[in-house]
């Protein structure tokens, strides 16, 4: 049976280091890390995540701001909110919760966030810095940064000689994940919906990272015995067995089947998910250190 990678416990230990770094910064410079989260519209899941981000930021001792805009907000209004936050010296990190309502174009909004405040690591500048391996001045997208910490907790820092397969090529996850694995010396294959013989490609992986958005797509015969399996999926499905109207979360990996084959595996919930908000806190503290002219801590 595979080792279950406990994302909650690992996230808790990173949060302790974030708290300590925030305290040290405030004691030495008087600067409190400031995080602003902008949410547009009424999507229930997005509101849950944004509330959790605000709560976590306060626990870490940050100055925390939430800006909630109505679903019919114009592109111009959203961009003017980001422009104001760019100029606010008390704010070191700006995040626009995704997805945005369909009438809004996320691309220009993300690009106008100052790169040094782009704690989601989604701007072209930060994606480019990661692409060329600049870890000193860039900010890395939170979910892949968190997934990398989970992988390191099992396999260590150097992934030389390991084959890694990432399924999914989104800017939010797949692409930065591939770059992080490459920087750790893994041999990386980026797989996606057009990949031929996806199951066969996955079976070559010592590290299999699934971000397909399709519940339980990865089956036991896709997994190389002993592989480290990282599940980034979260699909909410009805769970009438838990009571009327109840739901449960499924990952992109058929956990029950794959657990018997893998060497280590993340559960859903409680695997990669808790690392996302944790790494947002880490990026905010990093941004605040850099804004104060100090070398940022590593997480
Ligand atoms: N601007 C951004 N938008 C979105 C991001 C992001 O990183 N930046 N990621 C996701 C949503 N997300 C944070 O925003 C997020 C998703 C999941 C979790 C999490 O803790 N999941 C738990 C389960 C939680 C539950 O019960 O629903 C887990 O997997 O254990 C945190 C944050 C899309 N948008």
From TrEMBL:
Keywords: Amino-acid biosynthesis, Histidine biosynthesis, Hydrolase, Methionine biosynthesis, Multifunctional enzyme, NADP, One-carbon metabolism, Oxidoreductase, Purine biosynthesis
UniProt cross-references to Gene3D superfamilies, sorted A to Z: Leucine Dehydrogenase, chain A, domain 1, NAD(P)-binding Rossmann-like Domain
UniProt xrefs under Pfam families: THF_DHG_CYH, THF_DHG_CYH_C
GO molecular function: methenyltetrahydrofolate cyclohydrolase activity; methylenetetrahydrofolate dehydrogenase (NADP+) activity
InterPro entries reported in the protein's UniProt record: Aminoacid_DH-like_N_sf, NAD(P)-bd_dom_sf, THF_DH/CycHdrlase, THF_DH/CycHdrlase_cat_dom, THF_DH/CycHdrlase_CS, THF_DH/CycHdrlase_NAD-bd_dom
Keyword Ion transport belongs to the record: no
Residues given in the record as NADP(+) binding sites: 168-170, 234
Gene Ontology cellular-component annotations: cytosol
Reaction catalyzed: (6R)-5,10-methenyltetrahydrofolate + H2O = (6R)-10-formyltetrahydrofolate + H(+); (6R)-5,10-methylene-5,6,7,8-tetrahydrofolate + NADP(+) = (6R)-5,10-methenyltetrahydrofolate + NADPH
PROSITE patterns, sorted: THF_DHG_CYH_2
Enzyme Commission number: 1.5.1.5, 3.5.4.9
All copies of domain Tetrahydrofolate dehydrogenase/cyclohydrolase catalytic, residue ranges: 5-120
GO terms under biological process: L-histidine biosynthetic process; methionine biosynthetic process; purine nucleotide biosynthetic process; tetrahydrofolate interconversion
Pathway as given in its UniProt record: One-carbon metabolism; tetrahydrofolate interconversion
Domain Tetrahydrofolate dehydrogenase/cyclohydrolase NAD(P)-binding: 141-290
PANTHER family: C-1-TETRAHYDROFOLATE SYNTHASE, CYTOPLASMIC, C-1-TETRAHYDROFOLATE SYNTHASE, CYTOPLASMIC-RELATED
Primary role: Catalyzes the oxidation of 5,10-methylenetetrahydrofolate to 5,10-methenyltetrahydrofolate and then the hydrolysis of 5,10-methenyltetrahydrofolate to 10-formyltetrahydrofolate.
Complex and partners: Homodimer.
Record-given protein name: Bifunctional protein FolD
Species assigned in the record: Martelella mediterranea
Lineage per the UniProt record: Bacteria, Pseudomonadati, Pseudomonadota, Alphaproteobacteria, Hyphomicrobiales
Name of the encoding gene: folD
